[in-house]
Amino acid sequence: MYKIFLIFSILISPYVLNAEKIDLNTKIISARVYQGSANITRVGALKTTGQTGFRINNLGNNIVEGSVSIRFKPENSGIKIKRILVIPKVEKTFKDEDVKKLEQREESLSRKLKIYTEELESINKQRNYISSLVPKKKDITRDSSPDILMNTGAWSEYQKMLTSILDENSELEWKLLKKLDDTREELLVVESKRDYLSRASSQEHKDVEVELSSKVNKPVQVYVDYIIKDAYWYPRYEVKVDTKKKMNQISFYALVRNNTGEDWENAEISFSAADLKKKLDLPRIDEWKISFRETPIETEEEYDKRAYAYSKSDKMMDKKKKELRSLKERNVNEVADEEPKPAMEREELQNRSIDLVRQEPQKQMRNDYTKAKQMLEQGNIRSRSQETESNLIEFKNVYESQKSYYSNNDYNNAIISGKKAMERLSLIAPKYQSELSSARQDIEETVRKSALMQANSKITNGLISPLESSGGFDYRYSALGRKETILSDNSFNRVLVSRENLPNKLSYETAPIEMKSVFLTSNSVSRNKEPLLAGPLDIYVKEDYITTSKLNNTATGENLKFDLGPAKDIEIERKEDSFRETKGFFSKENSITKKITIKLKNRKKEKVSVLIVDRIPYTNDPKSKIETKNLPKGSKLSDTGILKYTVVLEAGKSKEIKYEYNILYPDKARLKEIFRGQE
After folding, report:
1. Least buried of 142, 194, 280, 532, by fewest C-beta within 10 Å?
2. Comparing C-alpha atoms, which of 591, 608, 605, 617 is closest to residue 669?
3. In this predicted structure, what is the pLDDT of residue 13?
4. Of all helices (H) and strands (E), which one includes residue 355?
């Protein structure tokens, strides 16, 4: 296997090229993840004896070049950094040795194919000749040779001999066709493998080179800090409500996606809500100085001199242009009179002949291959190579489709194409399936990545960037008490940030005018040091999943409310009766009376309190009026007609609440109902 390195240097001086540098092995010890990037810290041990610098190889290609910084421990080590270089590299890998061996094998199989084809042609010619031997009556007028008398016994022996020769040829033909089919099948597999391995794989990375000078000779710890792009994190929460122990266990997770090109193995992971792209420096305003100068008044004599100078320069310019135009025309005519030189044509013909020579073996190989295919079709045998050819052609098509789908982010079709490609490979003879194992691994890896990206797209639904909810503040969080391993595979990793057990207060709420259900809610007070940023919230009652909701920004000391869904043990029913009448003798007005009856039943074995939310119409029309009667004790009616009150239910008991309201409006007027601003 050969590797070709294409190196693009940002800043290289003769001193850098001549200096001897050692390769410094470093390990990532920490990563602070922002939205879109990460701050990485590496550490390595360096012996400063006789060293003028060091090199750190194979870092991620997404490094922000100006962000690299170096520090040493102990800090007063007497080491001075002269220069830091970031060098991008592209490594292309060609499997030339493997391809070369396959080409030699391909040539050997092609020679075998040609030999078998020629032998089959010879057998076919012999068979055709023998088949043409038939007895016929002698033409006396044309042939004056003496007659050859053959008795029936001799003729019978002659016929047996011909039949024996034809049988032997048929058996030999069948064996040759079998060898031809096997050789052609192997050749097809070798061609497919060579075609796959001929494609170069490339990998981009960056190296960091450091020049230094040291006054002491002792080992030091080297810390390398830099920012690398393509890393993300999102907050996500999980709450487990224990209704018996009256506890809420809330877990704060960071969903981390690493696509930096560097694996973070057993490293300390932390998170920041700051925006690294946002400038934090105060704006600078430069001074704006204004001055003036007087424009001199030009005399008539000065104006005439300046006009004459301009006109003279224009005439000189016209003269120069005419001379230049004449010179160009003369050169063109001189060149046109010369005889054309056919050197380029001869060179082109020579190149063409070289290409033809190179293509000749491939052309001959293809002709032998086609001839072998025709013989197999004429032989009327079950050809394994033709089935293999069909499977390999289909395999190549779906393999190319998979690559195209994956590059276009169509992961579902990439998975489907990958499965079809592996099905085609499984139809090939087992002894040849191992030949294409590298292609199978490539397909399986693409299927795995596609499935991962599909899962990522589902996970990302409802995720909220910390930049949206942090308000620009640099809130920081760390993984809880352990080191993490996050590979650079663009998948989401769930990292636990905090877990709190908070006392809860269970309550019941209902809005029977909308739904005849009583809902259970659990309330706690946040104790987290930093605010809980907005994000999706998975709610469980013990281990039973209830729903996924959204947690809004919650600071320390603020209330956390979790809706746990309908409570089956509490029943509610709302009934509304309506009466209409007209009041008054002289100034009549219409009256609509609504009588509300709400029935509650507690099937639980404990006392509960239920917050009931109802609606009463309100109006801003001075000619209309709303009157309420018998509202529940302790109820609160807002200016917009939202009525709230609490009902205490004993275990196993029922309760009925009644109240009413009247709507009064002028006679011969039409009542309009407006909900959320719509009539």
Report:
1. 142
2. 591
3. 38
4. helix 343-378
For residue range 162-172, what is the model confidence (pLDDT) as tens digits?
Answer: 777 777 777 78
Residues ≥6 apart with Cβ < 8 Å to 451: 411, 415
How far, in Å, CA of 567 to CA of 508, rounded? 8
For residue 72, the surrounding DSSP H or E stretch is strand 69-73
- Cα separation, 391 vs 376, whole angstroms: 17
In angstroms, what CA-CA distances link 59 with 35, 225, 261, 267, 268?
Answer: 20, 12, 8, 16, 19
Distances (CA, A) of 133 to 124, 128, 530: 15, 9, 104
Closest CA to 183 of 395, 384, 367, 362: 384
Please list, in sequence order, all residues whose beta carbon lies within 8 angstroms of the beta carbon of residue 216, skipping any fewer than 6 positions away: 48, 77, 78, 79
628-636 contact pairs (CB < 8 A, 24+): 628/659, 628/660, 628/661, 629/659, 629/660, 629/661, 629/662, 630/658, 630/659, 630/660, 631/659, 632/657, 632/659
Q: The whole model's pTM is what?
A: 0.62
Helix 437-459 vs helix 411-426: crossing angle, to nearest 10 = 150
Is residue 679 pLDDT above 50, yes or no?
no
Highest average pLDDT, of 122-131, 145-154, 541-550, 643-652, comes from 643-652
Model pLDDT for residues 223-279, shown as the tens digit of each residue: 999 999 999 999 999 999 998 888 999 999 999 999 998 999 999 999 999 988 765
Q: Output phi, psi for 71, to 5 deg.
A: -140, 160
